[in-house]
């Protein structure tokens, strides 16, 4: 697998982009890796552009409060708390 087939934030796992995306969206094809692991990895290490593109909005809105404590970076966690609050407010305003 070439480096262009992998996301740079998955440097320590032999996993291509398609597999990471399936896991992030709820797939369970790799034992030991679930959507929580994938969401934390995305939030902690990906660029904002990649987060915006890949983050599964419904799963994020429903589960961020239980995932947030697993994010080690205060800055990343607080930034996503802000995003979560804004998206929830938009959703409720509809």
Strand content: under 5%
Label the structural class: mainly alpha
N- and C-termini, Cα separation: 44 Å
Number of DSSP strand runs: 0
| Number of DSSP helical runs | 5
Radius of gyration: 13 Å
Shape assignment: globular
Largest sheet: none
Would you mind describing this structure in some detail?
With 94 residues, the protein is mainly alpha-helical. It is built from five helices and no strands. The longest helix has 20 residues. It is globular and about 45 Å long.
List keywords for this structure.
single chain; 94 residues; mainly alpha; 61% helix; globular
Secondary structure layout:
Blueprint: H1 17-24, H2 35-45, H3 48-54, H4 57-67, H5 74-93
Helix pairs in contact: 1-2, 4-5
How would you summarize what this structure contains?
With 94 residues, the protein is mainly alpha-helical. 61% of the residues lie in helices and 0% in strands.
């Amino acid at each position: 697998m070439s480096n262009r087939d992998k996301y740079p934030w998955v440097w320590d796992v032999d996993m291509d982009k398609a597999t990471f995306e399936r896991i992030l969206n709820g797939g369970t094809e790799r034992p030991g890796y679930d959507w929580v692991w994938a969401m934390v990895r995305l939030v902690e290490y990906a660029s904002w552009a990649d987060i915006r593109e890949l983050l599964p909005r419904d799963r994020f809105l429903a589960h961020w409060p239980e995932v947030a404590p697993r994010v080690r970076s205060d800055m990343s966690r607080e930034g996503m708390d802000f995003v979560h609050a804004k998206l929830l407010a938009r959703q409720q305003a509809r």
